[in-house]
């Protein structure tokens, strides 16, 4: 399917907790994003999971940013469960970690350039090395850590990005910080795709291990992340997961009464 067809097809549009997103296959997602670059267009891309929707329930700025974007993709088992609870079917789990290898292949083939922005100092550099080793010929034209002062130093960071005009800018500040930063600066940034990717760099740099395949396939990757970082993530998953299910049930009831 072409970029326009994917975006115009109403059957691809779903909504959970008042946030719209696309239910499309991995192939359609890839042709959509590569179509944006080929047409020299500009789109912001976000991934949403249960935690993002929990945050957006209380953060109206984040929610309206997501709803202003044409490309919001469902990431994680929680989105699958939410869709089933409202009687819809999710075509694919489109998390950034699985999408990136495909995006690298396409970028290599089409000469798209990438810029890595985010994570702790050193992480993006290690990721660049790993990507260039895995995809010889891939053109990662720049990197920058995410711990600059987002109020006073963004102009310098944007000047650095614009000096190389990457086709694809990956922004890894975590949600919703990255979505707000991208939204605020999208018109100043010379790039076709501005993609918020959360903790992705920490995995691709080799700093953090991803869950084994059986856990990923079973929809319990979150359990592995919780096991690795219980102090930071218990609230997100132990409280967040049941809260998400409760919110869906409440939202579904409200929808049926409307
Ligand atoms: N981060 C950053 N700048 C900040 C705060 C966070 O670059 O000011 C990075 C952090 O180092 C990590 C990512 O943002 O690489 C967020 O990771 P997290 O696991 O919270 O993201 P998730 O995928 O869960 O949204």
Write a brief caption for the model.
The protein contains 13 helices and eight strands. The chain has 258 residues and is an alpha/beta fold.
Outline the fold blueprint:
Layout: H1 3-8, E1 13-16, E2 19-22, H2 26-38, E3 43-48, H3 50-58, H4 60-68, E4 71-74, H5 77-85, H6 96-110, E5 113-118, H7 123-134, E6 139-144, H8 154-162, E7 168-172, H9 177-185, E8 193-196, H10 200-204, H11 213-217, H12 221-228, H13 230-257
Parallel strand pairs: 3-4, 3-8, 5-6, 5-7, 7-8
Antiparallel strand pairs: 1-2
Helix pairs in contact: 3-4, 3-13, 12-13
The structure holds uridine-5'-diphosphate.
Approximately how much helix is present in the residues?
40-55%
Order of helices and strands, N to C? Answer: HEEHEHHEHHEHEHEHEHHHH
CA-based gyration radius: 18 Å
Strand runs, count:
8
What is the CATH topology assignment of the largest domain?
Rossmann fold
**Would you identify the regions where 5 or more consecutive residues have pLDDT less than 50?**
none
Give the CATH level 1 class of the largest domain: Alpha Beta
How many separate helices?
13
Shape-level CATH architecture of the largest domain: 3-Layer(aba) Sandwich
Relative strand content: 15-25%
Distance between the termini: 34 Å
Mean pLDDT: 95
Structural class based on helices, strands and sheet pairing: alpha/beta
Largest sheet: 6 strands, parallel
Sequence of strands across the biggest β-sheet: 4-3-8-7-5-6
Gross morphology: globular
Count of the separate structural domains? 2
Bound molecules: uridine-5'-diphosphate
